Amino acid sequence: MSGQALNDWLAREEADFVARHPNSRASFAAGHAHYLYGAPSHWMRRWAGGFPLYAASAAGASVRCVDGLEYADFCLGDTGGMCGHGAPAVTAAIAAQLQRGATLMLPTQDAAWVGAELTRRFGLPYWGFTTSASDANRAAIRIARMVTGREVVLVFNGCYHGSVEEAHVALAAGRMVMRTGVHPNAVDHARVSRVVEFNDLGALEAALRPRDVALVLAEPCMTNYGMIEAAPGFLSALRALTRSSGTLLLFDETHTLSAGPGGYTARDGLEPDLFVVGKAVGGGIPVGLYGLSAELAGRLWEQVPRRSDNVRVRQSSHLGFGGTLAGSALQVAAVRAVLAEVFTEENFARMLALADALAARARAILHARRIPWFIAQSGARVETMMAPGMPRTASEVARGRDPTLETLFHLYMINRGILITPFHSMLLMCPATTTAEVERYLAVFEEFCAALPASGALTERAT
Ligand SMILES: Cc1ncc(COP(=O)(O)O)c(C=O)c1O
User: Which of 458, 395, 418, 443 is nearest to 197 (CA)?
Assistant: First the structure.
């Protein structure tokens, strides 16, 4: 299909989108009077179509927009809504805790259950709360620097760990640069950050060799450039190399929790020194959690004693992380409900079965139509990669991307009642996702594929 034909097709979808959503369009136009980028979060302007849908209500895996249209929601708040919208157990627990007191600077007894469950599920014995996954990563970085006495944080090219300064770097022609659109914010990235390609063991080994890296901050499967799985042996080599170079290893499982009730860490027996999870585990309440191994906690306590030996000291000791609302009664009640009643073994089994079926059927559709794309899967999360096979690095993904085709795909889906995450083509299952919603996606996917040219003709780029 020629670039011009793709552009024309996209223009038709855009016109259709505008015609179907007058109320959302007017709301976004009005939003520019008071919001920097039209909506409460600048990310919200990133949906295909030129303006976001404004939500009227959502239930389970379904969203109704202010123009009265229904959507099967596979975006699920970019995992923040992975419990399903209005999950009854979470809603009830949150409402009850709001009535008993949301935030008190006092722990509640839910904390004991939650702490024990986090350890049972993810394996790390000691935990702390924050109000976002970004903040949990920041706390973990600070702890890593405290105990190692080193400054450098190593990340993989194409990563996303939230608004963490050290991770705002990328590789361009082998050199470290700032991520597009991110100001350095007076941080000396040359001093505090290092970045290598995922799955590049040689580069990783060389980057750790100076023994100045405090922490490797990584996802066990990269989820920000589509999905990039670790090559066989990469994660165990990463563990061995970090150990031998005195570097701590953090797995940020904020997105990869989709792999199962204990993320990759439990599923594959990984042994990180630090662990972070967030978003989904709060069931809609802002939550981040960081976990520490026993060995690391011991090293931290050598610097900051575990018990307050003199409560008469009036100067507060804030450690430089956490916050007033971190560990609030409301957060802890929400996490308890999510872990006890939503992210259970049974619900994950359902979500995984749905994702397996969706991925298998999508692969069969691509195969039948000789479309050279790849369907990646990480547990309950399925990704359409518009490339012939699993990429090994973010650079590989970037080289193969066709922004017009991706935008068209997203808008085509929205116009037919399907929401997929706006930044790439991820489909997430929640416990409330129905077989009918999966079928609806597959029917539209097949229709889209049928409208594309067969075989390798997709290589001509739109401009
Ligand atoms: C792997 C990972 N870590 C951290 C974050 C940041 O989470 P939050 O927005 O809660 O700070 C994200 C957000 O998408 C993420 O994908």
Answer: 395
Show the tokens assigned to 286: 């802002």
The pTM of this model reads 0.96
Going by DSSP bridges, is the β-strand pair 288-292/274-278 parallel, antiparallel, or unpaired? antiparallel
Verify whether ligand 1 is closer than 6 Å to residue 219 (CB atom): yes
- Run of H or E residues at 55: strand 55-59
What residues of the chain score a pLDDT lower than 50?
455-457, 459-463
CA–centroid distance, 437 to ligand 1, in Å, is 26
Q: Point out the ligand 1 atom lying closest to the alpha carbon of residue 279.
A: 10
Phi-psi sector, 123: left (phi>0), alpha (psi -120 to 50), beta: left
Atom of ligand 1 nearest to the CA of 136: 11
Q: Which amino acid is at 442?
A: L
- Rounded (10°) CA dihedral 236, 239, 241, 244: -130
- What is the distance in A from the centroid of ligand 1 to the CA of 253? 9
**What are the backbone dihedrals phi and psi of residue 426, each rounded to the nearest 5 degrees, phi first?**
-95, 140
Q: State whether residue 369 is helix, strand or coil.
A: coil
What is the 150 CA–ligand 1 centroid distance (Å)? 24
Q: Mind listing the pLDDT tens digit for each residue in 154-193?
A: 999 999 999 999 999 999 999 999 999 999 999 999 999 9
C-alpha dist (Å) from residue 159 to 126, 146, 188, 198: 26, 24, 19, 9
The rounded distance, in Å, linking the Cα atoms of 124 and 272 is 8
Distance between CA 336 and CA 340 in Å, rounded?
A: 6
pLDDT of 459: 46
Nearest residue (CA) to ligand 1, atom 8? 133
**221, 245 contact by CB (below 8 A):** no
> Which token pair is 151?
């400054």
For residue 125, report the distance from its CA to the centre of ligand 1, in Å: 22
Is the CB–ligand 1 distance for residue 254 below 6 Å?
A: yes
Verify whether ligand 1 is closer than 6 Å to residue 160 (CB atom).
yes
